[in-house]
Amino acid sequence: MLEGPIPDGFGKVMNSLEVLDLSGNKLQGEIPSFFGNMCALQSLYLSNNKLKGEISSFFQNSSWCNRYIFKSLYLSYNRLTGMLPKSIGLLSELEDLYLAGNSLEGDVTESHLSNFSKLQSLSLSENSLSLKLAIISSAGFVDAQDEFVETQYYKELASIDKQHHTTVSGFIKAAREGGEGEYEIQLPNNHVNAAETQPRSYKSNPATNDWVPNSDEHQPNRSEST
């Protein structure tokens, strides 16, 4: 198991890597900006460590010379803080973005997400983020369906009043534009402000406070399960 800060010279030595998985260690310190300067890097897994610092510093201090090939970023379950920078939109080829289990705060709006035309999985759970999306489909990468929440416990949730701030625990399921495939957007333990959207109705379920299983069971990559 690796411990301590990531060495400054690591990026130069490993500059030709396409996939780097350092998840499930005890890495500390800030995420080095050189990861965004590794021009061949396509997937970076740093989940389940003890990395800290402002997440905006990581995005803003990198050249992102690999932005047209970079597809997967896993930073879940660290100690990252601050607001999600709009410069994250530079990663236009991103397919998977996992930021769950940190201490991120602030608003997430369409301007953060509108450039992600290929995004398939987005996990923001267990942060203090406020999601302010006029309608999900206006972000440009999903066509929202009426399947708002589907779990083994509640297949057809009776109703959701999205006229107020509400804590969402579960999944928003949405089809890709063109009807092919699905996106999974994990939003547990954040706040949703969707005052401009229309309420959606779902049939015949009792209401309890424990209406979804732990979202970690649904995470698709090994870096989320260590």
Automatic annotation (TrEMBL):
Region annotated Disordered, chain positions: 189-226
Biased composition (Polar residues): 189-212
Gene3D superfamilies: Ribonuclease Inhibitor
UniProt feature, compositional bias: Basic and acidic residues: 215-226
Pfam families assigned: LRR_1, LRR_4
UniProtKB keywords: Leucine-rich repeat, Repeat
Protein origin, superkingdom: Eukaryota
Entry protein name: Uncharacterized protein
